[in-house]
Amino acid sequence: MPLVVQPLAFDDIPKYNSLFHDAFFDTPIGSIVHRAPPSAASREAQIKKTAKQFHNPHTRFWKAVDADTGEIAAAAKWSFYTEDRAQAEVDEDTQVPAPGPESNEEGHMAFFGHIAQSQREFLGTKKHALLHVLMTHPRHRKRGAGSILLREGLAEADRLGLESYVAASEDGLPLYAKHGFEAVKAVTFDLAKYGSVEGTSTNTIMIRPARAKEGVESTVEAFVSSKTISEPMS
């Protein structure tokens, strides 16, 4: 059953959002940002939000499709900014989204506060490629779907001469490192603090230097230390 990479179609958005839930809800981070599965109303609101993002000229969605069944096995969302950005645009894009009715508010604010703060810290107003989401349905893991989607986005980043940025889960970190991403910051979350499962989960900010154009310097700084940084306060 080969996988084929295609642009996500607008009509795929409900399937894309269902895939997002299936891929992330039962993960460690999912356990701290959600306290219950999304309701039908929450799913509809998320579909509308994704539809708006779909028409953003900087944003691209791809899917990996099972060639035999037509099922979407994995999907990715990227943004490509080829010019420096206005600070007002950055401020708007890095606002922490409001918690939904089924959210664990404390965990939601901690995790998405880290995401927003890190984007302001490492990206700011400069041009870049941002990998927002790379997700694989549990039934299709271990088939290389994430790798082929990642290569698709990185090829576009290289064509545009952009460095690439991702906030990597523990499971995703080896894949990103294999494709040239370098760790610049890590934040470890105490899962029990948010009333969920025991243990911890680390999210790592990673940057891959631009490769397409000679003389384009990466702004990657050395990873401060091998120790993780405590949870941010925002």
Written description of the protein model:
This protein is of the alpha+beta class. The protein has a domain at 3-150: Aminopeptidase (3-Layer(aba) Sandwich), CATH 3.40.630. It has helices at residues 13-24, 28-33, 40-54, 87-93, 105-122, 145-160, 173-178, and strands at 3-7, 59-66, 72-81, 128-136, 164-168, 182-190, 200-208. A 7-stranded mixed sheet has the order 1-2-3-4-5-7-6, sandwiched between helices. β4 (128-136), α6 and β5 (164-168) form a beta-alpha-beta unit. α1 (13-24) crosses α3 (40-54). Residues 59-211 form the N-acetyltransferase domain. It holds the Pfam family Acetyltransf_1. GO terms for molecular function: acyltransferase activity, transferring groups other than amino-acyl groups. Keywords: Acyltransferase, Transferase.
Give descriptors for this structure.
234 residues; alpha+beta; Aminopeptidase; seven-stranded mixed beta sheet; 7 helices; 7 strands; globular; disordered C terminus
List the topology elements.
Layout: E1 3-7, H1 13-24, H2 28-33, H3 40-54, E2 59-66, E3 72-81, H4 87-93, H5 105-122, E4 128-136, H6 145-160, E5 164-168, H7 173-178, E6 182-190, E7 200-208
Parallel strand pairs: 4-5
Antiparallel strand pairs: 1-2, 2-3, 3-4, 5-7, 6-7
Helix pairs in contact: 1-3
Domain N-acetyltransferase: 59-211
Organism: Lineolata rhizophorae
GO molecular function, one term: acyltransferase activity, transferring groups other than amino-acyl groups
